[in-house]
Design a protein that fits this description.
- The protein is mainly α.
- It has three domains: 5-176 and 250-261 and 370-398, Rossmann fold; 181-241, no CATH class; 284-366, Orthogonal Bundle (Tyrosyl-Transfer RNA Synthetase).
- It has helices at 22-35, 47-54, 61-75, 92-103, 106-110, 113-121, 130-133, 135-144, 158-175, 181-191, 194-210, 213-225, 231-241, 284-292, 313-321, 324-335, 341-367, 370-398, and strands at 9-14, 40-45, 82-86, 150-153, 253-256.
- The strands form two sheets. It has a three-stranded parallel sheet.
- The chain is elongated.
- The chain binds tryptophan (TRP) and iron/sulfur cluster.
């Protein structure tokens, strides 16, 4: 598969953390559900990445993967629209990781900010391992093995996409120079036809001589629009524009997922470690109990004390879930002591339960049939593997390993 066709490919991974909560839904999963209808999507459970930190105690990882995948499916990620799989079930990721490790400077990995940050944060674990240093490179392999064009991630992962781009660039630079590359480019230019050929050559010169980015963009569009040349030739023409060889591993783009606005039950960001979450499979009575127990404006000691929604975590939930009319009712009622806090919480409880109802139902279906999950993951891994093999074949050949 070519880098041109693969620009429609979206890849993202999540470390298995067990059951997911509303923060994951509003932050990540809702976005995945939307993307699966717009792109060719690959979503996987990064169990090897989990091992980089949990290597002393790996027993829970498998269970966490299953719980997490059930929640993906519950949230509406659909195995008929997206490939869902487990990283370790597509061992091609590991071979690419190994091959990339040969050409990745140690200093690139040492300077990724998460390396030192995580070591400082997870003080009780010894993270001075080879595997942990290689975490971002394994992630690069995850992305590059599918020649994915877009990688939806949060801000904390941008540095990992950036190093992926650098690794791809270096790879193409080192190994993209097939014998006869220049001649192949010239032949491809001729195949475009006189007019386009001249335009291509002019634009390439303008970009290479004066760094004219518009000329580059126009030339790239020109190449992509050609009807009569092969994908291999298109890649040569694209590579030649930027003075590199053939593009074997295209550079992906991060698709920044806006930070989740989902507040937790205490007004801090919803997080498993804060214990302030509502899980995607929370039962209606538990949703009710958790929200009823939420702290409110401490100034409202008694029912007739007026309050201020600005300092109340329940208001933050209204901002996520309520329409204008309900918000008005809260603002007015709270500030005038016209409504009580229990009353105020009711629409939020109803909205959360309405959001979770279809998820609970889907989750139940999957919880009851682990075989179904296994077969979804197997099918996902097969599809993923087929594409991964294509990439690996090119990578091996480029690195002089074309034995098979
Ligand atoms: N490191 C990512 C995280 O912690 C998970 C991940 C692993 C990933 N491989 C990936 C994300 C590839 C995007 C693409 O969230
Ligand atoms: Fe918070 Fe609503 Fe009570 Fe005001 S009325 S303090 S917004 S829960």
């Amino acid at each position: 598969m070519s880098s041109i066709a693969s620009q429609q490919r979206v890849l993202s991974g999540m470390r298995p953390t067990g059951r997911l909560h509303l923060g994951h839904y509003h932050g990540v999963l809702r976005n995945w559900v939307k993307l699966q209808y717009e792109y060719d999507c690959f979503f996987f459970a990064a169990d090897w990445h989990a091992l980089t930190t949990a290597y002393e105690n790996p027993q829970g990882i498998q269970q966490s993967v299953f719980e997490m995948v059930v929640d993906w499916l519950a949230a509406g990620v659909n195995p008929n629209n997206a490939n869902i799989f487990v990283q370790s079930q597509v061992p091609e990721h590991a071979e690419l990781h190994l091959l990339l490790s040969m050409m990745t400077p140690l200093s690139w990995l040492e300077r990724v900010p998460t390396y030192k940050d995580q070591q400082d944060k997870l003080k009780d674990q010894d993270l001075s391992t080879y595997g942990f240093l290689g975490y971002p490179l394994l992630q690069s392999a995850d992305i590059l093995i599918y020649r994915a064009g877009l990688v939806p991630v949060g801000a904390d992962q941008i540095a990992h996409v950036e190093i992926t781009r650098e690794v791809a660039r270096r790879f193409n630079h080192l190994y993209g120079r097939e014998p006869g590359f220049e001649e192949a480019v010239e032949a491809a230019i001729t195949k475009m036809g006189k007019k386009s050929a001249k335009l291509y050559a002019d634009l390439r010169r303008r970009y290479q001589e004066s760094g004219d980015d518009d000329a580059l963009a126009t030339a790239q569009a020109l190449v992509k629009d050609q009807q009569n040349i092969t994908l291999g030739d298109k890649e040569r023409l694209l590579g030649s524009l930027e003075g590199s060889g053939k593009i074997i591993l295209p550079e992906p783009q991060a698709l920044l997922t806006p930070a989740s606005k989902m507040p937790g039950l205490d007004g801090q960001k919803m997080s498993k470690s804060y214990g302030n979450f509502i899980s995607l499979r929370e039962l209606p009575d538990d949703v009710d109990a958790k929200i009823r127990k939420m702290p409110t404006d401490p100034a409202r000691v008694r029912r007739h004390d007026a309050g201020n929604p600005d300092v109340c975590p329940v208001w933050q939930l209204h901002e996520v879930y309520s329409d204008d009319a309900t918000r008005q009712w809260v603002q007015q009622g709270c500030r005038s002591a016209g409504i009580g806090c229990i009353e105020c919480k009711k629409p939020v409880i109803d909205a959360v339960n309405a959001e979770l109802a279809p998820m609970r139902e889907r989750a139940r279906e999957f919880e009851d049939s682990p075989d179904l999950i296994r077969s979804i993951l197997e099918r996902g891994a097969e599809n993923a593997s087929a594409i991964a093999e294509d990439t690996l074949r090119d990578v091996r050949a480029a690195m002089g390993l074309a034995y098979r």
